[in-house]
Amino acid sequence: MPPFHLTNALILDHGPWGARLEGIYAAPQTRLAGNELRTSSYFLVNLTLSYRITRGRTVTDVYLKGTNLTNEDAREHTSFLKDRLPLPGSGLVAGMKMTFLPSF
Q1: How many Cβ atoms are within 10 Å of 16's Cβ, its own excluded?
Q2: Angle 79-64-52 (CA atoms, 0-180°, nearest 5)?
Q3: pLDDT digits 0-9 by tens, 12-71
Q4: pTM, rounded to two decimals
Q5: How many CA atoms within 13 Å lie on the side-chain side of 3?
Q6: Is 66 helix (H, G, I), strand (E, B) or coil?
């Protein structure tokens, strides 16, 4: 059974610029089935900065995302590998997303 999870985010948009600060909390799991081990609670912090370019019917979002910025040791209780492999530590992702809007 998965423990209680809560995600909160603060999202700011100003013109083409965007920012998202996200916190993810997972409670400890003490209600166990046979052969399961407890998992501790964790709190992850993620931050995304983005820039939107609009050209006609094409929208391009360029972003930089930092994940697990506090390098928290987090283990997903429902994972079969939780005792061997925690969730990833701090990371950085750069990307681009293009959306093509339909013409009606």
Answers
A1: 12
A2: 125
A3: 999 999 999 999 999 998 777 777 777 889 999 999 999 999 999 999 999 999 999 999
A4: 0.83
A5: 20
A6: strand
